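Molecular record:
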Amino acid sequence: MKNFLCSFCNKKHDIFFETEFGLPEVIVKELDSGELEYESGERWFIIQKKYFLVKGVIEIPIIDYEKKIKWLVWAMISKEDFFEYTSLFSTNKKANWPKEGTLAAEMAFLKKSVGLRISLDLKEKNSFPSIKICERDSELGRMQEEKITMEGAIKIMELFYHDELKFNGLQV
């Protein structure tokens, strides 16, 4: 399935199996104001030499479908883990991974995403680390653990296309 008929606008839309989420809105506003000191790269972000963020991938399996939904998101980790990550990124060494952190991505279709506890694991050399949600009672944790239906994946896509329809939670 490459596209679906949207229940909101009655038009066909493509299904995005891979989507990237930006920094949380509150951080973006602060950065735009020019009041925050920061350094950044393609895969990392340091704010005020105090908050250390890296990009990682959350995979959501779809029941009876070979593809997974993959979301590229920001995660906050400790300073020590951040510098270990940046030194190991382009090697095949894993050291003492996975590491714990918190999710720093706003997903409007979920009741809660920012601040969820996560486990960040290095995969292959030069690839984004994988993110596993540790809080199984959260919507995102349940989606990752229990898988979602294709209908659930389509509900998520509808919200991506119709961002102005801010839902307070999604049942998939």
Remarks:
- Confidence is low (pLDDT under 50) at residues 165-172.
